[in-house]
Structure formats: structure tokens, C-alpha cells
Amino acid sequence: MEFALEAEGLTKVYQGKVVLYNFSLNIRKGEILGLLGPNGAGKSTFIRIISGLEEPDSGILKILGERAGKIGRRKIGVAPQENALYPLLTCTENLLYFGSLYGIGGKLARERAAQLLDNLGLEKKKNVPCQFLSGGMKRRLNLACALMHEPEIIILDEPTTGLDPATRVQMWKTVQEIVRKTGATLLLTTHYIEEAEALCSRIAFINSGQVVAEGTPNELKRRVGKELAKLTTIPGAPDKLIAIIKKINGIDAVTATEHGVVIEGNEISSKLPEISKALEKSGETIVELSLSRPSLEDVFLTMTGSKLREVVAVEPAKRN
């Protein structure tokens, strides 16, 4: 398996505070990985280390199989949490400037700038100073600047912080389309659960500077609990319902209620069509159905004792 980014044992201390401690994470080529954690957990510090703005006190970072250095970092595009834009420059001028930092100029730079503005829905604003753009447009331009040199790895640090829900969803669609078209690897840091679930094929939880769990959203949820489906049927004979449902593979438990049953198991939602068909065949009609499942918030709370939106205090550095 090829990795775009490999972090092994990264540790970073600021003024006696441990911000990253033995941080290890591998990101596969072509995947969208979400680094999920509360404010102060170490997400932005990790991004700064990847970007070359900070050096770890210890540990190893590899970019596309090579030890991190100037050449490797040129293959990374970072859209920081705070917009890195020049307010008096137009959208096009901002893009041309950031392209020039990577040695891209002339016709090629103008073509890329025009294409990015078109792809991100900013073509009509190309000659507008970015200080006059809406918050959502500034975030899109911030992303476009990170893409001018066609990076193989894209890093988005809290890309939708401060945006309204509708603009946030539009930003998600934009990000998904970019990854689909370019095949780039994407690292997304966020504390929005819904954002991670909408965009990421894999998620890593970070707390107090360490990765505490990683996996697909479904894998993580299965670690802390199972799905529950509550069925009410007509005529609603619980003993009969239990006998029917227990014959279906993947059902862990079925318990009776007054007019139905509660079904427990992993990924019960995928079993509902089969359950419904079996009940109807036996003369039972489902009149009410509710489904509950663990959330990523539940996973994080179970593993750390903290909520994702809580601010986590970093620990003091240990003295030898």
C-alpha cells in the first residue's frame, strides 16, 4: 500500500506545553482522511509541521515516500484556517501571485487561474478585489490559491469554519468535485462531525496531541455500540416476530415490546428490507419504525471522555 503522508512519533512542545506527543498517522494515496478533534487538540500544529512552518522536536515525517523537505512540500497545497488572501488584489491577481511562489507564470498561470475560478464558481468575480467577496467566496478563493501548482496532496484546515450551513454544504460539493477530477490525496481537519461524515472515507480522532482511533466512519461506530431498530406491527404478536427475525443472519438480539420488538445488531439498517419482507410474508405489517445508531460524537466521547467541541488543554511537558 502506498502512502501520501507518513507521520511516526511526532512530538512538539511549545513553551513547556506538549502539543503533539508521539503522533503517528499514515494517509493513503488518493483517499480523503478527516483529522477530527476539538479545538486545541493539535490539528493545526500537525498541519504546520507538514507545511514546513514548524519542525517537530522528534519523530519522522515522510511525504510521498521521502523524508519531508522543500521538494516534497512543493507537492502539497494548504488552504489554512485563516484565509491567506491579499484583500486589495483581485481574485485573479491573488491566484497569479500564489502561482508565482511555485515558479508558475505567464500563459500557464493565467490559464490555471481562469480554470480554477471557473471550477469554483468565481469566474464572474475574477476582477473583483477579494475584500468585497462574501465569506463563502473567500473560502473558495483560499482553496483555489492552494491548487495553483496542482499539488498531489491537498490539506484543508477547518475549511468551513464560520460559514452558514448552506454555504458549508456547497463547499463540501466543491471539495468532492476537485478530488474526483484530480485524484489528489486530501487531508481535512475539522471539528464538525457532519463535515467528516460527508467527505471522508477514513477518519482519525486526535485528542491532547495523539491519535486515539482511526478507521472508516462505520468501523469507528461499531467499536462503541450497535444499531437498534424498534418495530411496531399489526397484528403485533411479539413471540411470532422474534421467531421470524431471529432466522435472519446478522441479528444479535431481539426483545419484545408491547406491540412489537427491538432488534439489535451491527448495520441493522442494511437488514431492514430483508426483515420487512419476512414479516410481510408472515402476515405482519410494519406500522412504525425507528432506528438509532452510535454517532461519531459517541465514539469520541467513549474513547476520550471529552466532547468534540470542548477545548482540550494541552499537557505540561515532562521533565527528565
CATH architecture group name of the largest domain? 3-Layer(aba) Sandwich
Task: Write down how many β-strands occur, each being a DSSP E stretch of 2 or more residues.
Answer: 15
CATH fold assignment of the largest domain: Rossmann fold
What quaternary form is this? single chain
Pick out the low-confidence regions: 310-320
Structural class: alpha/beta
Helix content: 25-40%
The number of distinct structural domains comes to 3
* Percentage of residues in DSSP E strands: 25-35%
Instruction: Give the SSE order as H and E letters.
Output: EEEHEEHEHHHEHEHEEHEHEEHEHE
Largest beta-sheet details: 6 strands, mixed
Assigned CATH superfamily of the largest domain: P-loop containing nucleotide triphosphate hydrolases
Number of helices: 11
Key structural traits:
320 residues, alpha/beta, Rossmann fold, 5-stranded antiparallel β-sheet, elongated
Walk me through what this model shows.
- It is a single chain.
- With 320 residues, the protein is of the alpha/beta class.
- It has 3 domains: 1-75 and 152-161 and 183-219 and 294-315, Rossmann fold (3-Layer(aba) Sandwich); 83-150; 226-292, 2-Layer Sandwich (Alpha-Beta Plaits).
- Helices cover 34% and strands 29% of the residues.
- It has 11 helices and 15 strands.
- The chain has helices spanning 43-51, 70-73, 91-100, 106-119, 135-147, 165-182, 193-199, 217-222, 238-245, 272-281, 296-304; strands at residues 3-14, 17-28, 32-36, 58-63, 66-67, 76-79, 153-157, 185-190, 202-207, 210-215, 227-234, 253-256, 260-265, 285-292, 315-316.
- The strands form 3 sheets. Strands 6-7-8-3-9-10 form a 6-stranded mixed β-sheet, with helices on both faces.
- Strand 9 (202-207) and strand 10 form a beta hairpin.
- Helix 3 packs across helix 4 and helix 3 (91-100) runs parallel beside helix 5 (135-147).
- The longest helix is centred in the middle third of the chain and has 18 residues, at 165-182.
- It is elongated and about 75 Å long.
- The model is unreliable at 310-320 (pLDDT under 50).
